[in-house]
# Entry
Amino acid sequence: NAGVTQTPKFRVLKTGQSMTLLCAQDMNHEYMYWYRQDPGMGLRLIHYSVGEGTTAKGEVPDGYNVSRLKKQNFLLGLESAAPSQTSVYFCASRPGGQGNTEAFFGQGTRLTVV
Amino acid sequence: KQEVTQIPAALSVPEGENLVLNCSFTDSAIYNLQWFRQDPGKGLTSLLLIQSSQREQTSGRLNASLDKSSGRSTLYIAASQPGDSATYLCAVRPGNTGTASKLTFGTGTRLQVTL
# Structure
């Protein structure tokens, strides 16, 4: 059972390059999230989606774009990477509705922008 | 704005010791609170979820308590083992609707259990 899968796991970019991070979940979850984790700052929400075709901004959305064309996939794009975007990125998913359900996380993508 | 604080930031204990990790939050209007474990270079693994109506949850050697009115949760680990070494994160889910259940995380407690 795969759960939440992120690709790639590691990436080094040069300043100004673009890339897309892919998150895939096989649990039929409605909600999906992208977080970044930086030392001393905890996890911060970048963007999220409450269903196929919907996206919304989180706490730190600048410099990122997202798309949710299929329910199982949530893509995070960096159009012009900056060193400040060096971080570990985590994707998470959760069933929809107001039930007391857990969030499940992927293994993370470690991105370095030089 | 909800803020979540975890104290201490780091903790080192000898094997076999019982220990308590603390999590505090500023807005008591939460739906639930979740404790996670993160191993170095890995993702987050859910340990326990406490609903706002509950006082505690138990799983094996782990016990999490919740005092919503005072904005506190504790994670109690009994008879610690070296394999418990990891970073422990708590996260709260807001109680108001329309928030898409966005979790707010603490910065974590890094635990090392020594032989």
About this structure: The radius of gyration of chain B is 14 Å. The interface with chain A takes residues 4, 31-32, 34, 36, 41-46, 49, 51, 89, 91, 97, 100-103, 105-108 of chain B (CB under 8 Å). The CA atoms of residues 9 and 109 of chain B lie 4 Å apart.
